[in-house]
UniProtKB/TrEMBL annotation:
This is 4-diphosphocytidyl-2-C-methyl-D-erythritol kinase. Residues 197-261 form the GHMP kinase C-terminal domain. Transmembrane segments: none annotated. The active site is at 10, 141. InterPro entries: GHMP_kinase_C_dom, GHMP_kinase_C_sf, GHMP_kinase_N_dom, IspE, Ribosomal_Su5_D2-typ_SF, Ribsml_uS5_D2-typ_fold_subgr. The keyword DNA damage does not apply. NCBIfam families: ispE (TIGR00154). One of its GO terms (molecular function) is 4-(cytidine 5'-diphospho)-2-C-methyl-D-erythritol kinase activity. The keyword Zinc-finger does not apply. Belongs to the GHMP kinase family. IspE subfamily. ATP binds at residues 99-109. Catalyzes the phosphorylation of the position 2 hydroxy group of 4-diphosphocytidyl-2C-methyl-D-erythritol.
Amino acid sequence: MIRQWPAPAKLNLFLYITGRRDDGYHHLQTLFQFLDYGDSLSFAPRNDGKICLLTALAGVDDEENLIVKAARLLQRQPKVKRNNRSLPGVDIWLDKKLPMGGGLGGGSSDAATTLVALNHLWQCGLDEDQLADLGVSLGADLPVFIRGRAAFAEGIGERLTPASPPEKWYLVTVPSVSVSTPAIFGSPALKRDSPVRTLDQLMALPFHNDCESIARNRFYEVEQHLSWLLEYAPSRLTGTGACVFAEFDTEAEARHVLEQTPAWMHGFVAHGVNVSPLHRMLSGV
Ligand SMILES: C[C@](O)(CO)[C@H](O)COP(=O)(O)OP(=O)(O)OC[C@H]1O[C@@H](n2ccc(N)nc2=O)[C@H](O)[C@@H]1O
Ligand SMILES: Nc1ncnc2c1ncn2[C@@H]1O[C@H](COP(=O)(O)OP(=O)(O)OP(=O)(O)O)[C@@H](O)[C@H]1O
């Protein structure tokens, strides 16, 4: 039996933009938590150096898939052991559950799980800091998935402090639009002047996402989903969208609201967790 490696979703429980760098990247303050829901991957090492994704992703060229990019990046590391002078290779299967371009970090999580799993299966011996440094070159969200602890992120998202927000239940809904992260960050209307605050200060305020008003204005479906959910519970956008989430103290309350969603709304219920399901698996929990 080939092992299934989880690639969980993340939520940005809050997200503030505190400035813009000269290269266009933004300074953020955001709180990441994982969901016990996501994609899963399987890996079968091969010894001919080939990286083969056996489950292609519609609309994403294999060479552009972050899973393949992550495997190739690790394969090029000097610590990687050769077998009869050939680099290690791998067959990869992806069971995709997370919507793409949804703000749930699916692509980043798939890539992080690939780095963590292949580091183990190929016995590369990279430590967590080395994997996180490698990962950030593929996307700002990879380090948090590699480290696997809920975290307060600052800088452009790479400076992480472990955090323990309450582990609520969430109803996540998926507007059927794909939101481009660069388009939201490039918008002249984006609020970029939130004050820099401490985690304690931010935890004491109602949570908020500075990207939300732009996503609501630009995408009618995001507006519709949020207006509907807000009648039932505190609800927000995750990342730059398109997905939104409503928070509840119990699974039963979240499922009760899911049952009442109109036909045009699709979503799922998941538990917010401060230790990533990937890391729970690795520690044998
Ligand atoms: C906003 C978040 O979703 C919060 O979780 C992420 O930081 C975005 O992470 P991501 O999708 O992995 O983003 P990346 O692939 O690193 O960057 C995509 C694009 O978003 C913009 N971007 C991203 C992160 C950041 N701190 N400032 C930015 O302006 C840049 O235009 C960049 O070209
Ligand atoms: N394995 C992958 N899974 C999903 N998307 C991928 C993958 N590899 C490459 N991509 C590309 O990355 C884009 C963003 O995908 P992703 O699902 O990570 O977005 P997201 O959830 O909005 O991420 P974030 O919250 O980090 O902005 C997709 O539109 C797709 O073109």
